[in-house]
Design a protein that fits this description.
It holds the Pfam family MMR_HSR1. The protein is α/β, with parallel strands linked by helices. The chain is built from 9 helices and 8 strands. The chain has 2 domains: 147 residues, P-loop containing nucleotide triphosphate hydrolases (Rossmann fold), CATH 3.40.50.300; 105 residues, K homology (KH) domain (GMP Synthetase, Chain A, domain 3). The chain is 35% helix and 20% strand. The strands form 3 sheets. A 3-stranded parallel β-sheet has the order 3-4-5, with helices on both faces. A 3-stranded mixed β-sheet has the order 6-7-8. A two-stranded antiparallel ribbon has the order 1-2. The longest helix is centred in the C-terminal third of the chain and has 18 residues. The radius of gyration is 20 Å and the shape is globular. The structure holds guanosine-5'-triphosphate and magnesium ion.
Length: 277
């Protein structure tokens, strides 16, 4: 979605379950405005409260769009993909299959056989191979999508790239760095809560963020030796937030420990997972 709209509004990492919210990315040109909706994946292990929320967020988004772009890794089809296809196929919308990461296929002549293989799985409206990383074939997908969108008035000012608030984006960019830098050591028990966000008279944006984790061990992993890891998380996130806002940012972070927060509905609501009931 970031590649399609030409702006980074949805965070990414190697770890599964990076996307935890329904995130809109808006693309406006002279001819059209298209609103893309990025969703969490659908996960079978819906044990803790958060996983149930993620699945619900993903499934409800499926029913409110004109077209579903199901993105899979071009190299392999997984049982998880089959589950998602069951849900996508049960909607009224047309489902297109996006074979992503073709840059990792190795040989260009492997693309057509892959398309032939996946074609048997469902009556996809289109099957589009591309690479979100290199941008290869993204413009082709955009042209195809623009060609089938229903006509209607545009809902957003042309310069707007998402309906997410700046506060939400700031929290997400911090969470992205946590996932990227300590994602292997701290599975999923982190959340970011923006305590304050204010713009000073001189234009500098001052942000105070609480990073929640489950226990003291995770706390010390997040902080790192002499606080170096937390510093890296902060400086990389700050760079991203500055780029997004186009303003100078001052970022201060605190680590908070609360056991079982990912199963605590009040806490989930506090950090932005409001659809828990
Ligand atoms: N080589 C390559 N890597 C890619 C491409 N697209 C995405 N990635 C990488 O794949 C990883 C997962 O990407 P995400 O966008 O976070 O994946 P997702 O499907 O949204 O996953 P969740 O949000 O966790 O459900 C990241 O490390 C990306 O950098 C691509 O076209 N080529
Ligand atoms: Mg994602």
């Amino acid at each position: 979605m970031n590649g399609l709209i030409g702006n980074k509004v949805s965070i990414t990492s190697r770890k599964p379950q990076t996307t935890r919210h329904r995130i809109q990315g808006i693309c406006s040109t002279d001819e059209y405005q298209i609103v893309f909706v990025d969703t969490p994946g659908i996960h079978e292990s819906a044990g803790v409260a958060m996983n149930k929320i993620l699945n619900r967020t993903a499934r409800s988004s499926l029913n409110e769009v004109d077209l579903i772009l199901m993105v899979v890794d071009a190299r392999r089809w997984t049982s998880g993909d089959t589950r998602v296809l069951v849900d996508a196929g049960a909607t009224e919308s047309s489902v297109w299959l996006i074979l992503n990461k073709i840059d990792l296929l190795g040989r260009p002549d492997l693309v057509l056989p892959r398309i032939d293989q996946v074609r048997r799985r469902y009556d996809f409206g289109e099957i589009v191979p591309l690479s979100a990383k290199t941008g290869d074939n993204l413009d082709h997908l955009m042209t195809l999508v623009a060609g089938v969108m229903p006509e209607g008035p545009s809902g957003y000012p042309t310069q707007q790239v998402t309906d997410s608030s700046d506060v939400f984006i700031a929290a997400e960019f911090i969470r992205e760095q946590i996932f990227r830098l300590v994602g292997d050591e701290i599975p999923y028990e982190t959340a970011v809560d923006i305590r304050s966000f204010s713009e000073r008279k001189d234009g500098l944006v001052s942000i105070e963020a609480d990073i929640w984790c489950e226990n003291k061990r995770q706390r010390s992993i997040l902080i790192g030796d002499d606080g170096d890891r937390l510093k890296t998380i902060g400086s990389k996130a700050r760079e991203q937030i500055q780029r997004y806002l186009g303003k100078k940012v001052y970022l201060e972070q605190w680590i908070k420990v609360k056991k079982g927060w990912a199963d605590d509905k009040r806490m989930l609501a506090k950090v932005g997972y409001s659809r828990w009931e």
